[in-house]
Structures are given as structure tokens and as C-alpha cells.
Specification:
9 helices; 2 domains; 3-stranded mixed sheet; single chain; alpha+beta; 15% strand
Amino acid sequence: MQKTNDYQLNMHTDVQGVCNKNQDLLALIVAYVASKLKLDQNIAIEKALAARLEKLDKNSAEPKNLLRSVASAAFLDLSSNLMSFAWVKGDMKLYLEVKFTDSSLKKVSDNEFIRICENLISVAQDNLAQLADRKITAQTLTDDNTLLENFATERQIFVNTRREHTEVTAQLAKQIKTTNFDLKSIDSIIDSLSASQPVLAGDYWKARNLRKPIGSKLVLKGKVFDSATNQPLPGAVVTISQLVNSKSLTSGPELAKIVKVKSAGGGFQLKSLPNGSYIVTVSYFGYADQQVTAYVNNGVLTLVQLPLSKIA
């Protein structure tokens, strides 16, 4: 998720840069002004969330683990003394209760480690008068308890940080989806300028060309149905063709694809489309052809609805 977010953030920043470079021209278009303002606001939110994540990433588990190591050494010593005490006393139940090794303590969770240490302190306090000859005093237990409290505090800080990291990551992913959705309005404006401003359009779509992580795929999904009855129309033929001048980074047969709707629900999908704007045309016997424009971009699932009307 983190890598995908980074790719998306970089793409948004690149698009913003192209827009800023051509601001004098684009600002003359009324619809663009509001769209650009929204883009700037979205990117500002994204950057703020990304900065929070970067700060949270620096909070590692090392301080917590170091304090656990120090506390573990102290409580292993306490365990050893209590084991000796229980053995001499002939109390095997107590002996087994306080018996721990370095290996056994390393295997338990932080919560279980705290519980074990608290129990060792409790047992020692209950038998404190008989443990004086084993160099276990009230001060010893106070020191051990302080070590445990410090560890517990650091552990809670780490847990809170991880929880916040998860929440901020989700917020950033949601914000990126919002930005991608809002960018479609600028996509449309750039498309309208493709013929008159080919250099601007080329720069824009180059910036919009998000480099995808390995394994990710572009996906266009749609549904064909009767506009009057909403009944699906399996068997319809869908043609997806890239708009001329919308983007020239990919050429050849990938620029046009034909799909026959086989799903009984009238649905279809297409994978591995390059970024850009597409005309989606659907044909079905007895119905008038329908066309819609679709904008395809990595990491964003593009959905199209294709209602067809019967020919009178």
C-alpha cells in the first residue's frame, strides 16, 4: 500500500507541476479554475498526511525492545532467587509458578511478559521477610517495578503509534482516491485542448502516466442494459478506442479493443489498458449505439454505465 501511495503522490505532484507551468493559458478556462483549486487543496492534504506517516515511520520498536531486554535480565534474576527459595521450602507448586528462562521469556508476547513480571513481584512481596538473605529487598522490588513500568509505557507508545500509522495510511489512501476522481475534470479539459495545444496535452498525459507497481493492472468495468427496463443485455459488442491525441505513449493494437459481453448480468471488464481517455462504444441488435468517454488511470477502477434505447 505504501508504495502505491508513493506512486500516486508523485503522479499528482507531477500533474500539478504541468498545470502550474501552463497556468496563464489554463486559467482562462472557467471550469479549470475551480478544478485546479480543488487539485491544490487535495494535494496539500495528501502531503500533510504523507508527512505524518514519515514521522510515524521513524518511531521504531527499538526503544521498546531495549527496555524489555533490560527488564528481562532483572526479572530472570528475581525468578532464579524465587526458584531457589521455593526449592528449599519444598513448595513445588510455587517453584513451577516462578520458573522462567531467557528462552521462555523471549517467546511470550509483551502483554504476557508484563503479566509474568507482575506476578513475580507479587510473589516476592508476599515472601519478602523470608527473602532478605537472598538479597531481595523492598528497594529491589521497587527498582524492578520501575523497569517494568518504563517498558509498559514505551510499549503503549509503540502500540499507539502503530495504530495511528494504520489510521493515517487509510486516510491517505482515501484522499488519493478523492484526488484521482477530482482529476477527471481536468482530464476532460486537457482532452478538449489536445488539437490546439498538443505540447500541453502531451506533457499533461506524460505526467498522468502513473508507473504502476509490479503486478498491478489497469481495469475498466462496465455494464450494458436496457434504458427502459434496466434489464442486462448480454451479447452486446463493446469497442474501446483511445481518443486521438489524448496520449501517444502507446500505439498499435492496444489502442483499440473489442469485447463481447458474455455475462448474463451485462457486465464486462478490460485489463491492461494504457493511461488515457477512451471512447467506449456499445452496439446491440435492435438498439441505438451508445457512446461514453472513459478516463483510465493506474490504481483507479473506472466504471461505465451503458444504457441502450430500442430503435422505434
